[in-house]
Amino acid sequence: FMEPRPPTPSSLPSKLTVNFVLPYAAELSKAEVDMVIVPATTGQMGILPGHVPTIAELKPGLLSVHEGNDVKKYFISSGFAFVHSNSYADILAVEAVPLDRIDPAQVQKGLSEFTQKLNSASTDLDKAEAQIGVDVHSALNSALTG
Amino acid sequence: MSHLKLLSWISSEQPFHNTNHIFVQHHSRLFKSNISHPSNSSNFPTINCTLRDLRQRIDSVTNTQKITEAMKLVSAAKVRRAQEAVVNSRPFSESLIDVLYSINQQAQLDDVDTPLTNIRPVKKVALVVITGERGLCGGFNKFILRKAEARIAELKNLGLDYTVISVGKKGNSYLVKRPWISADRFIKGGGFPTAKDSQVIADDVFSLFVSEEVDKVELLYTKFVSLIKSKPVIHTLLPLSAKGEIRDENGNSVDASEDEFFRLTSKEGKLAVEWDKTTGTSDGILPNMEFEQDPAQILDALMPLYLNNQILRALQESLASELAARMNAMSNATDNAIDLKKSLSNVYNRERQSKITTEILEIVAGAEALL
């Protein structure tokens, strides 16, 4: 039921069409925006109209959608970003929350909790779990402040 | 009638009301025994003739009808939500399929090896059976369990070993009562399926497959065809292969006859049976697609996500079918209750009227006797 993408136009389109989807809902569907910044594992990546086709894996971090002077920010847990040749971007996130729904106090608490767990972790499994917790919470932290 | 007159003649000395009292009792007893036959000529073999019993029965049927009607309405509302959930999860799985396809194409040129696409000769199969939580849903659980038993028999015939992972209370209790079916794990379902629930199953299945304990994983769930029809299906979950069949050591195909393969480019219809098979991005395989990370890494991360998504979809469809089945069952129950109430009320009214007639006759006869 998703229509096939339109063919590659000859000239650069002015807007980027974004499909931002989650496993249980479509957050943005064919939204025409100016720019999207995604947190790829290799760092923050900005996608503008006319971007070369790319596949990128995303790490937990801040996703921002820029439309004119509007910026919508989401925190995503992880996912993938696919940019196609006709300025279509599909962003798949496993979990995404708009930034204003995150409580900074909770984030701080979680961060200190996991840092503590990391320091007191004995087995490799515990260490790995604690490390993941620390990563996610520090990403949340920087997303809230940055 | 003759010995009634005799009675009144004998007791004519006694005060009027006493005579009447004995006379009425005697008379009504006679009439009662006569009445028992005509009402039994209605369709019920064991109608209890006392008015009070009938009234109690009518009340209980009315209560039952109210409950079944409420359950039907609740299920109808939930079915809609369940369908919406399935539809909402579609863009995600479609985009995932899209990219998986194009990456697969590219990855075949490089030598990428992912554990989940590993095709081995099959010795043991894991069956993930998805059933419901509660009863009162008609034949829903029975159908899927029957299909599971049939599949187990098939596998036994092919000489393969199997293990069952059961999701849902009904399936769990079924398997617990049958210890001869080897069951691996019992997973409790409940409520609306979320990614967390499907993650539990996905982890289990993943570890079983990767550790080579099982060589094939099949998902048995009920596919939602329409509000009044649903179908139990078998879907091969692992190994993820684009096409081709999975064979056992002797090269015989071990797939169920109506298996739905790992479909890279198909979408399944919803309410009506519309199968809009868009051919995906068959033209969109871009040879110059840039990979931010190593394709192997990306595939590694994509596959579990795809697995998780498949399981979530199956859970959602199963829930939708269960709710539709419950809605139908409760609707039938409500109709039956209404019919039963109607016929019971008929019998009750006839009883009541004949009792009134009796009393009138008695009064008349009593009055006549006095004359």
UniProtKB/TrEMBL annotation, chain A:
GO terms for molecular function: proton-transporting ATP synthase activity, rotational mechanism. It is found in: Mitochondrion inner membrane. Keywords: ATP synthesis, CF(1), Hydrogen ion transport, Ion transport, Membrane, Mitochondrion, Mitochondrion inner membrane, Transit peptide, Transport. The keyword Mitochondrion applies. SUPFAM superfamilies: Epsilon subunit of F1F0-ATP synthase N-terminal domain. Gene3D superfamilies: ATP synthase delta/epsilon subunit, C-terminal domain (1.20.5.440), F0F1 ATP synthase delta/epsilon subunit, N-terminal (2.60.15.10). The keyword Membrane applies. Residues 16-93 form the ATP synthase F1 complex delta/epsilon subunit N-terminal domain. Signal peptide: none annotated. Belongs to the ATPase epsilon chain family. F-type ATPases have 2 components, CF(1) - the catalytic core - and CF(0) - the membrane proton channel. CF(1) has five subunits: alpha(3), beta(3), gamma(1), delta(1), epsilon(1). CF(0) has three main subunits: a, b and c. Mitochondrial membrane ATP synthase (F(1)F(0) ATP synthase or Complex V) produces ATP from ADP in the presence of a proton gradient across the membrane which is generated by electron transport complexes of the respiratory chain. F-type ATPases consist of two structural domains, F(1) - containing the extramembraneous catalytic core, and F(0) - containing the membrane proton channel, linked together by a central stalk and a peripheral stalk. During catalysis, ATP turnover in the catalytic domain of F(1) is coupled via a rotary mechanism of the central stalk subunits to proton translocation. PANTHER family: ATP SYNTHASE DELTA/EPSILON CHAIN (PTHR13822), ATP SYNTHASE SUBUNIT DELTA, MITOCHONDRIAL (PTHR13822:SF7). This is ATP synthase subunit delta', mitochondrial.
Automatic annotation (TrEMBL), chain B:
Keywords: ATP synthesis, CF(1), Hydrogen ion transport, Ion transport, Membrane, Transport. GO terms for cellular component: chloroplast thylakoid membrane; proton-transporting ATP synthase complex. GO terms for molecular function: enzyme regulator activity; proton-transporting ATP synthase activity, rotational mechanism. Belongs to the ATPase gamma chain family. Produces ATP from ADP in the presence of a proton gradient across the membrane. The gamma chain is believed to be important in regulating ATPase activity and the flow of protons through the CF(0) complex. PANTHER family: ATP SYNTHASE GAMMA CHAIN, ATP SYNTHASE GAMMA CHAIN 1, CHLOROPLASTIC. This is ATP synthase gamma chain, chloroplastic. It comes from Ambrosia artemisiifolia (Common ragweed).
